[in-house]
Amino acid sequence: MKILGIAAPFGHDSSAALIIDGKVVAAVEEERFTRIKHAEGQYPINAVKFCLKQAHLEPQDIDYIAYPWSFKALRDKRTQYFFRTIFTRTSRAYKKFFRNKKELRGQVNFIEHTLESCDFDVRKIKIQWIEHHIAHVASSFYFSGFKDAAVLSIDAGGEITSTLLGCAKDRDIFKIKEIIAPDSLGMFYSTMTDYLGFRREDGEYKVMGMAPYGDAAKVNFDKIIWWDKKKVIYKCNDSYVWVKRNKRFRVDKVYSRKMVEQFGLQREGDDLSEPYIHIAAITQRKLEDISLRLIDIYLKDIFRNHGNLCFAGGCALNVALNRVLLEQPYIKNLWVQPASHDAGTSLGAAVYVAAQLGEYIHPMKHVYLGPEFNNKEIEEEIRRFKFPFTYENNICDVVADLLFRGEIIGWFQGRMEWGPRALGNRSILGNPTMKGTADKINALIKFREKWRPFCPSILKAFAYEILNSDHPAPFMTISFRVNPEWRDRIPEVVHVDGTCRPQVVEKEINPKFYKVIENYYHKTGVPVVINTSLNRRGEPIVCTPKDALVMFEGSGLEYLAMGDFLIRKR
Fold it and tell me: How far apart (Å, rounded) are the C-alpha atoms in residues 337 and 331?
């Protein structure tokens, strides 16, 4: 079967993914084409067209469209939402209960506009509506290769649900517990992201990165988010978390005047300061503690047979949380969907339909699922920009030598990555042993906060020695505590708390990127390079050679390796 998933139903992170006979053929986010981060308010038209082109298909060849939103789920949970919000969000409660067909019309319009713009006949296409959080957990479980697992999805909210805990076996997913928004860990974390001066639904990873600089014990959040022993769930205070408009400090923010009265004005600027670092720390602590409590109460017994956990939803991109989960003695294997945010639900919806149709789902070994460009296409674009360049017979060794000398290089190869992490095809590479390299990348190339950490890409043979763990880590979805013996050897990829977010690189998965690191290792004895995404602050990861050259031209990068060409500024 040919199943096309499209997303997202909530006005951001639109994407498309194509599965043919249980195998992912293409998956890409719309933002990579439009160059608007998170593609807010945009339809996944370019993404759909790419998927069809990659598979050499026409619209009429598609058997099913899968969409990660369910009117039935909205109707089934509306009563719970109504009684939870009737006194604190009265108008929203009535809209969800009495006017939900308007929401359905909006979703239908989104699907029809997307498909018609891609020349589909919407009268003939079969559409499968998949519950949002089911799409999230499907995107993780079915690609994990596990036969049995506990499943977890945490984000701001789906139709109404914000958290889903369950289990999965073979093709079946079973719900154990659902928590209804606005009691939402995702909304809580995004509210604090907003208050800490970052862009909500985008800068949450910055809060995570800031948290180790602070002391969670210096701030009390027990009135903002807490554990309800009677109902055995967590609760959010509607006077603080994603508040309604008449309680907001500013109309464009989701935190309240009450929060400002208690903690002061929103953080501004790029520096670290008090009390904001402590607020980041308690925000992260609350996410971790509540997540662990949920798992301990609702999922712990499931782990006795296998120890497998599959995790998705926006909060699954929190690599520090994922490290804490993996440190629990009853969790042996953690598989996190690389595109755990809402963009990943296009893939989740599609794979759920494939699984229900009885198809064998191929485990996800890599995420190189986007566009690629050959040397001819690359050279034509370079000549338009008129940068000096050379063709290199061994681009991997040339780049390794530049890294050895302390240079920073843009690296553009093969198919673009699916998800928010650069994994060696759209990357900026640097020397992890040379102090000041991270500062230089932050200041002159990425134009971002100087305290932000960078990730290491590590040869698989050395992963256990450096990370003290042999757990798979191919997608930068889990952080690990770096072996103390290595912290001083690779200081530019170790965060202030002694952790890193690694990509363990295998030769069979990405031979060209592996060769760069291997060559660098032969020159230095260090099997690690800095790897960060090829983009500037506030921009999506580059997609095309033109995107890469525009970024190169507007940044402090001196070298860019695209295909077999080395491009210089001097």
Answer: 17
Among 355, 422, 423, which Cα is nearest to 143's?
A: 355
H/E segment holding residue 389? strand 389-391
Strands 64-67 vs 2-7: parallel, antiparallel or unpaired: parallel
Residue 205 belongs to domain spanning: 185-336
Can you read off the two tokens belonging to residue 561? Answer: 């390796």
Q: Nearest-5° angle of CA 84, CA 232, CA 200?
A: 60
Contact by Cβ (8 Å): 370, 541: no
**How many Cα atoms within 13 Å fall on the side-chain side of residue 45?**
12
User: Do 224 and 243 meet the contact criterion of CB atoms below 8 Å apart?
Assistant: no
In a domain, 175, yes or no: no
How high is the pLDDT of residue 396? 98
How many of the other CB atoms lie within 10 Å of CB of 356?
14
Residue 369 lies inside a defined structural domain of this protein: no
Amino acid residing at 492: E
Are 4 and 17 in contact by the 8 Å Cβ rule? The answer is yes
pLDDT of residue 533: 97
What is the full DSSP assignment across 436-477? THHHHIIIIII---TT---EEEEEGGGHHHHHS--S--SSS-
Order the strands of the 2-7 sheet from edge to edge: 23-29, 15-20, 2-7, 64-67, 127-129
- State how far Cα 3 lies from the chain centre: 23
Residues 272-293: what's their mean pLDDT?
98
In the predicted structure, residue 570 carries a pLDDT above the cut 90 = no
Give φ, ψ of 246 to 5 degrees.
-75, -5
Of 326, 356, 386, the residue at which a domain comes to its end is 356
Residues 125 and 199 reside in one and the same domain: no
Judge whether residue 40 has pLDDT over 80: yes
Q: Whose CA is closest to 277, among 324, 330, 212, 227? A: 212
d(C-alpha 173, C-alpha 171), whole Å: 7
d(CA 257, CA 249): 4
Beta strand spans in 192-241 (E): 225-228, 233-236
- At residue 391, what are phi and psi to the nearest 5 degrees? -85, 130
Write the pLDDT tens digit of every residue in 206-256: 999 999 999 999 999 999 999 999 999 999 999 999 999 999 999 999 999
Q: What's the total number of domains in the chain?
A: 3
The type of residue at 340 is S
Contact yes or no for 399/517 (Cβ under 8 A): no
